[in-house]
Amino acid sequence: MKLKRIHHVAVICSNYEVSKQFYTEVLGLEIVKEVYREERNSYKLDLAVNGLYQIELFSFPNPPERPSFPEATGLRHLAFETECVETAATTLKERGIKVEEIRLDPVTGKKFTFFQDPDGLPLEIYEM
């Protein structure tokens, strides 16, 4: 078996409209496909990052809350690559998103910072 790349990351949100607005309008991800699944009372929104399908946003009735932040077992955070962390951080702040202080990765020498989606999922922007 040879894995080629990550196909997608699935995110479950507590408020579909709020999260849809965040991922599309605040982060600027492109909608590939949106489906309402009546039998599950659930939306599935396929999103593209820079033209590549990568994120599935799901809504489910009454999903459980994240057990702790950020050290719960499972996905720790989702990272997006950007050319300039400072520019991305400034844009997020202008859009009302709280962004942590920019740090320097001691191993790679690249800049990065964290912010959260509407449900508190840790998101990272990382310098190319």
Q: Count of helical segments?
A: 2
CATH class call of the largest domain: Alpha Beta
**Can you tell me the CATH topology of the largest domain?**
2,3-Dihydroxybiphenyl 1,2-Dioxygenase, domain 1
Q: How do the SSEs run, as a string of H and E? A: EHEEEEHEEE
Total domain count: 2
Beta percentage is 35-45%
CATH architecture heading of the largest domain: Roll
Kindly report how far apart the N and C termini lie: 29 Å
Order of strands in the sheet with the most strands?
1-4-3-2
Helix content: 10-25%
Largest β-sheet summary: 4 strands, mixed
Output the structural class: alpha/beta
**Overall form:** globular
CATH superfamily caption of the largest domain = 2,3-Dihydroxybiphenyl 1,2-Dioxygenase, domain 1
Organism: Ectobacillus antri
Keywords: Metal-binding
Protein name: VOC family protein
Domain VOC: 5-128
Report on the architecture of this protein.
The chain is an alpha/beta fold and 128 residues long. The chain has 2 domains: 1-61, 2,3-Dihydroxybiphenyl 1,2-Dioxygenase, domain 1, CATH 3.10.180; 76-128, 2,3-Dihydroxybiphenyl 1,2-Dioxygenase, domain 1, CATH 3.10.180. The chain is 16% helix and 38% strand. It has helices at 16-26, 85-94, and strands at residues 9-13, 30-37, 42-49, 52-59, 78-82, 103-104, 111-116, 122-127. Strands 1-4-3-2 form a 4-stranded mixed beta sheet, covered by helices on one side. The chain has a 4-stranded mixed beta sheet with strand order 5-8-7-6, covered by helices on one side. Strand 3 and strand 4 form a beta hairpin. The longest helix has 11 residues, at 16-26. It is globular. The chain starts with 8 loop residues before the first strand and ends with a strand.
